[in-house]
Amino acid sequence: MEIKMSDESLKVAASTAGGGAAGTAGSLAAVSTLGAVEGLSAADMTSGLAALGSLVGGGMAAGIGVAAGKRDATLSYWV
Fold first, then answer.
1. CA triplet 18, 22, 25: central angle to 5 degrees?
2. Residue 5: in which H helix or E strand, if any?
């Protein structure tokens, strides 16, 4: 089975995948950098999410919202 895509569809798919990868990398970097423990362990993720959540007056659950928050093209928070 052959799938045909127009050039425009291919550009949209590539930019969507690239944007998703950049957003994921940015969120992961923020969480792991803010964590009290160095690395990507459960303790680091927990403390990193809690640190992000404290930016909006919450805890770890709020940190998930901050990490997943809407970003514009410059990856700045809360557009």
1. 140
2. none
The residue whose two tokens read 């809690």 is 50
In a 13 Å sphere around the CA of 17, the CA atoms on its Cβ side amount to 6
Helix (H, G, I), strand (E, B) or coil at 23: helix
Angstrom distance (rounded) from CA 61 to CA 55: 12
> pTM of whole model > 0.70?
no
Residues paired with 77 in a beta bridge: 71
Q: How confident is the model over 45-61, as pLDDT tens digits?
A: 888 888 888 888 888 88
Distances (CA, A) of 75 to 25, 31, 37, 38, 78: 11, 15, 25, 24, 9
Backbone angles phi, psi at 65, to 5 degrees: -65, -40
